[in-house]
Amino acid sequence: QVQLVESGGGLVQAGGSLRLACAASGSILSLNAMDWYRQAPRKQREFVARITNSGSTNYADSVKGRFTITRENAGNTVYLQMNSLKPEDTAVYYCNGDITTWASRMGYWGQGTQVTVSS
């Protein structure tokens, strides 16, 4: 059984910063690519950032230069540092992990954490 738990969301003013964390737990052999997605009200879930197990990253154009994804392999945790936040960054942020266990390799989703940016 694998769980992904996000934390760090909250309310912040435009221009501010937040740091999200996604902690993976369970019978994990390896975290492969780990992603952050977000879903704003009345919109589809969209890709935000990815980090591979080798540390390569890529970002959605809308967050490049403002967001940074990192990972702490020892602790099975992925972070999303969000700077220069804008009201349009308001959304529920979800962690998605490509995770290998003793039984399988598959994708898992966390429950999400709300980020609200006020103007």
Overview of the molecule:
This protein has 119 residues and is mainly beta. 0% of the residues lie in helices and 62% in strands. The chain contains no helices and eleven strands. Strands 2, 4, 5, 6, 9, 10 and 11 form a seven-stranded mixed beta sheet that branches. The chain has a four-stranded antiparallel beta sheet with strand order 1-3-8-7, with no helix packed on it. It is elongated, with a radius of gyration of 14 Å. The mean pLDDT is 96.
In a few lines, what is going on in this structure?
The chain is mostly beta strands and 119 residues long. Helices cover 0% and strands 62% of the residues. The protein has strands at residues 2-7, 10-13, 18-26, 28-39, 46-51, 57-59, 67-72, 77-82, 91-101, 105-109, 113-118.
Number of strands: 11
Quaternary state reads single chain
Class of secondary structure makeup: mainly beta
What's the mean pLDDT score? 96
Strand coverage percent: over 45%
Straight-line N-to-C gap: 41 Å
Q: How much helix is in the residues?
A: under 10%
Could you spell the SSE succession in H and E letters?
A: EEEEEEEEEEE
Rg, nearest Å: 14 Å
- Count of helical segments? 0
Global outline: elongated
* Unreliable segments of 5+ consecutive residues: none
Could you describe the largest sheet, including whether it forms a barrel?
7 strands, mixed
From the structure above, extract its key features.
119 residues; mainly beta; seven-stranded mixed beta sheet; four-stranded antiparallel beta sheet; 62% strand
